[in-house]
């Protein structure tokens, strides 16, 4: 069957990467738009408990169930068996070593493609998910051979939360025959999606196996201080014969799949990618942007709207593989993930979806896995970021009817902050600045907590919160004007913030204080949060101060992968993000590098120096990073010390969003070369 190859080969590796340990450090990800995903390493060794061929969003999108761990393939060609999988075991050994037969791995759009070679044969596999379904597809093609091959696929399964490891005492599935394959059901699972797994392949007869594969070593879990020995249940083997030049589709799903022509699902996925490019107005001569458009799509998921409105809403997964949706992350990501990709209607729906949850002028910090679980309203910045995002979305869409629907909720935020709301959040009547905080509660984006100890409490008046407060007030003035509503109160409040903002200036260090008026006075720590104030072109800081800030931050905080959260000369600085959870949380905002901080840094730098070449130079490390960890995506964090190893989630929404927002800013700005966007 002739299937024309897709055009993108931005992520493409040969034997040097594929046949060695680097193959186990680079991770691929495919998603389905409702929270489900598949992920793994390009060499096949599972290094995380989250690595699986199907993790289903069984209660979309936050409850995610690990169902299909591996499909262990073996090719038999001219009487010789060639194992194509790779596993690492408890003793550290790797067996089999199918990765040594990998000739090539690449991303075709966001679809991972493996090409194995043995004798004179070339065999390819593509893995992708059907959008909106808990269905993963493997499309196998015998590209080249002088005779047929027999392909055997052994199905290794479990039914557990994706946060958990397998247990040898867990219930094993009941296997029944199903059209074109098998149906697996778990007696202990709750009825509904996720209690069954259908594994199907045309022209194949499955053979039940029924045994535990145990003692898998998951090195990423070990290195993160967690239990790291896993097990999977071998349910059955599928065998299919492929003639040279032919293909077959192998599917696993929470619902039985009807037969369809081989390759149809793959063509639909390719067409969907092309549609995203067309919507984003990104053509083929910008492969970096195309890759980021596809990465952005992985975070956008459906979420049911709350209350009488009902219907489908939109949310953003904060990061893969373990995060669900967080309000702060979503609000910071709207401009990059949705506006820069021209998905304006979805941006509107997302803000309405989150607006349903406003309470006391606040948004939940994060959404729980299960509907009905208690919401935690402990984010001081998310509501302000929502107002800022609303202004951006309105500027893009000019939809007055939508804005009128948003307006009461936006007003409630300003009123709640002015009068006072949870956790000591209120406007100080003396200076018009926002103060926040109480013991034991983390309210800003620097939110790590070890036991009962908040690592960065930042009680008082944090600088970025007041920069957001000023931007929110100015946004309210703009939006009120559009709705023909009074603007005086917003303008007056913003003027008070402007007049009071000088209190943040630290004359001794020629930068801003991170927090003022805290329980113990001001926090004289060199952190990147002041960049959110300096990135505002007019209003808060004079040009001389902006220059002093960017010069100091570039000298002490900047790394090629983003900004450190604390200066290395601070005694509390942690240059290595690693170890057990307590060690990692202690370092999370104490020197660890965050890529999303790249955006305010670049805006400040360009606002001061107008140096377009510098912007291009800043971008290149991130472009290279798209090939280094989570393939085609951007990591959550990096260690503060060189070589700045990628850490945390291998695909993070606001990291990707910052890069896309910057590139959109470049596309729409005079004086910055469009060549920046080319690889």
Strand content: 25-35%
Sketch the major β-sheet: 9 strands, antiparallel
Distance between the termini: 32 Å
**Class based on secondary structure composition and strand pairing:** alpha+beta
Round the Cα radius of gyration to an integer and report it.
Answer: 26 Å
Largest sheet: spatial strand order: 1-9-10-11-12-19-16-15-14
Number of domains: 2
**What is the level 1 CATH name of the largest domain?**
Mainly Alpha
Uncertain segments: 674-679
The helicity comes to: 25-40%
Kindly state the number of beta strands. 37
Fold-level CATH name of the largest domain:
Glycosyltransferase
Short description, anyone?
By secondary structure, the chain is an alpha+beta fold. It folds into 2 domains: 22-273, Beta-galactosidase, Chain A, domain 5 (Distorted Sandwich), CATH 2.70.98; 281-677, Glycosyltransferase. The protein contains 16 helices and 37 strands.
Overview features:
alpha+beta, disordered C terminus, 679 residues, elongated, Glycosyltransferase, 9-stranded antiparallel β-sheet, 8-stranded antiparallel β-sheet, 2 domains, Beta-galactosidase, Chain A, domain 5
Structure description:
- With 679 residues, this protein is α+β, with helices and mostly antiparallel strands.
- It folds into 2 domains: 22-273, Beta-galactosidase, Chain A, domain 5 (Distorted Sandwich), CATH 2.70.98; 281-677, Glycosyltransferase, CATH 1.50.10.10.
- The chain is 29% helix and 28% strand.
- The radius of gyration is 26 Å and the shape is elongated.
């Amino acid at each position: 069957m002739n299937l024309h190859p897709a055009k993108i080969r931005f992520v493409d590796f040969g034997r040097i990467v594929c046949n060695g340990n680097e193959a186990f450090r680079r991770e691929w990800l495919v998603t389905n738009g409702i929270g489900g995903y598949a992920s793994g390493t390009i060499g096949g060794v599972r290094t995380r408990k989250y690595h699986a061929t199907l993790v289903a969003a069984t209660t979309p999108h936050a409850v995610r169930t690990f169902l299909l761990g591996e499909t262990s393939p073996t090719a038999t060609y001219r009487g010789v068996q060639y194992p194509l999988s790779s596993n690492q075991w408890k003793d550290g050994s790797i067996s089999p070593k199918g990765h040594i037969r990998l000739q090539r791995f690449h991303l075709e759009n966001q679809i991972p493609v493996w090409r194995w070679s043995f004798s004179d044969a070339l065999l390819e596999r593509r893995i992708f998910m059907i959008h909106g379904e808990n269905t993963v597809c493997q499309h196998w093609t015998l590209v080249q051979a002088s005779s047929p091959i027999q392909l055997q696929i052994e199905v290794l399964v479990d039914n557990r939360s994706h946060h958990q490891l397998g247990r040898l005492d867990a219930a094993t599935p009941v296997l029944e025959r199903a059209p074109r394959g098998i149906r697996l059901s778990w007696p202990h699972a709750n009825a509904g999606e996720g209690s069954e797994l259908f594994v199907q392949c045309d022209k194949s007869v499955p053979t039940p196996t029924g045994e535990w594969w145990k003692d898998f070593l998951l090195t990423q879990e070990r290195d993160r201080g967690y239990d790291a020995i896993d097990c999977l249940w071998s349910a059955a083997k599928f065998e299919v014969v492929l003639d040279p030049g032919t293909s077959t589709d192998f599917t696993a799903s929470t619902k039985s799949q009807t037969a369809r022509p081989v390759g149809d699902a793959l063509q639909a996925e390719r067409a969907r990618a092309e549609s995203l490019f067309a919507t984003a107005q990104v053509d083929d001569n910008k492969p970096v942007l195309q890759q980021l458009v596809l990465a952005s799509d992985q975070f956008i998921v459906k979420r049911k709207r709350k209350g009488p409105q009902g219907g489908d809403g939109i949310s953003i997964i904060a990061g893969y593989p373990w995060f669900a949706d967080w309000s702060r992350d979503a609000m910071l990501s709207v401009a990059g993930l949705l506006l820069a990709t021209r998905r304006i209607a979805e941006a509107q729906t997302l803000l309405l979806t989150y607006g349903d949850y406003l309470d006391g002028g606040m948004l939940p910090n994060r959404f729980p896995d299960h509907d009905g679980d208690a919401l935690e309203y402990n984010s001081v910045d998310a509501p302000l970021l929502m107002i800022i995002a609303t202004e951006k979305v309105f500027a893009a869409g000019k939809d007055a009817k939508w804005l009128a629907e948003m307006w009461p909720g936006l007003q409630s935020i300003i009123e709640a902050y002015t009068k006072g709301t949870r956790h000591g959040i209120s406007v100080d009547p003396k200076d018009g600045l926002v103060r926040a905080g109480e013991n034991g509660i983390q309210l800003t984006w620097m939110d790590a907590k070890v036991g009962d100890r908040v690592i960065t409490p930042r009680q008082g008046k944090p600088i970025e919160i007041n920069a957001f407060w000023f931007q929110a007030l100015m946004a309210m003035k703009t939006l009120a004007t559009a709705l023909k509503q009074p603007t005086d109160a917003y303008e007056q409040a913003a003027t008070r913030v402007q007049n009071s903002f000088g209190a943040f200036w630290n004359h001794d260090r020629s930068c801003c204080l991170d927090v003022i008026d805290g329980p113990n006075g001001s926090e004289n720590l060199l952190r990147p949060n002041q960049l959110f104030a300096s990135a505002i072109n007019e209003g808060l800081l004079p040009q001389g101060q902006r220059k002093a800030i960017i010069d100091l931050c570039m000298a002490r905080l900047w790394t090629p992968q983003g900004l450190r959260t604390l200066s290395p000369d601070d005694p509390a600085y942690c240059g290595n993000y690693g170890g057990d959870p307590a060690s990692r949380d202690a370092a999370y905002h104490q020197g660890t590098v965050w890529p999303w901080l790249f955006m305010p840094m670049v805006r400040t730098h360009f606002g001061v120096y107008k140096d377009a070449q510098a912007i291009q130079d800043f971008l290149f490390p991130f472009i290279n990073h798209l090939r280094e960890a989570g393939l085609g995506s951007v990591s959550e964090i990096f260690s503060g010390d060189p070589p700045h190893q990628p850490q945390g989630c291998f695909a993070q929404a606001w990291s990707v969003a910052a890069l896309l927002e910057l590139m959109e800013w470049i596309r729409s700005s005079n004086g910055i070369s469009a060549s920046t966007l080319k690889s």
